[in-house]
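Exercise 7. Given the encoded structure of a 209-residue chain, write a plausible sequence.
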């Protein structure tokens, strides 16, 4: 078997560093010897939650997204921006903050690389079952405008396929739930290993501390 090329980074420059991301330019050795520049957005990891109630409905939120300029229907979600916080704990926190819900049972539905052509962002999508209501912290900024709705999972699949749901985590989570219901494969536990969990941006921020 022919040995595959090793894409070695020969140089790197940080162009921008902000609150939730950094942009760097890497010089990468290509097959044949050419060195190409690659733009890389470093980002926190993130979690999203398919919160499924006992009537087969998914808790979904409509939230304003400024880069798109409109509101999108999404799953409850948030960044892994607290040092060493286990992803499932972040998911529990985000579910309570955005919907006022807690869950008895947690498992991993699917992991999604947002856009690996230019960013290391990865989202772990959990399935949360056995829902109950809890106190919701006071919301601020975009979250103060959130609308919560319960969507039957079959309808959610139809709306994703119809292009009504376009958020990557929402589409992935809804279709992964449908696939899980159609098959017999056991879902991963909530603390399953996450190989692609982004850590570069977190290490960068901690190095300034």
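Solution.
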């Amino acid at each position: 078997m022919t040995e595959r090329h090793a894409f070695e980074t020969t140089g790197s420059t940080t162009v921008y560093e902000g609150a939730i991301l950094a942009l760097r330019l890497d010089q990468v050795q290509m097959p044949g010897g050419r060195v190409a520049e690659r733009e890389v957005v470093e980002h926190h990891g993130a979690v999203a939650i398919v919160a499924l109630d006992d009537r087969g409905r998914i808790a979904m939120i409509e939230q304003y997204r400024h880069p798109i300029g409109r509101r999108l229907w999404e799953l409850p979600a948030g960044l892994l921006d607290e040092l060493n916080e286990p992803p499932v704990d972040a998911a529990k926190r985000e579910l309570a903050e955005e919907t006022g819900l807690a869950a008895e049972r947690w498992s991993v539905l699917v992991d999604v690389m947002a856009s690996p052509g230019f960013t290391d962002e990865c989202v772990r999508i959990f399935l949360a079952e056995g829902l109950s209501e809890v106190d919701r912290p006071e919301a601020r900024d975009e979250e103060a405008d959130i609308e919560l709705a319960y969507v039957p999972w079959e309808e959610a699949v139809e709306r994703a396929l119809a292009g009504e749901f376009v958020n990557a985590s929402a589409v992935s989570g809804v279709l992964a739930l449908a696939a899980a219901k159609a098959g017999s494969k056991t879902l991963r536990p909530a603390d399953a290993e996450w190989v692609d969990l982004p850590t570069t941006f977190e290490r960068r921020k901690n190095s300034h501390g």
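Remark. Residues 44-182 form a domain with the Nucleoside Triphosphate Pyrophosphohydrolase fold (CATH 3.90.79.10). Students should compare their own answers with the one above.
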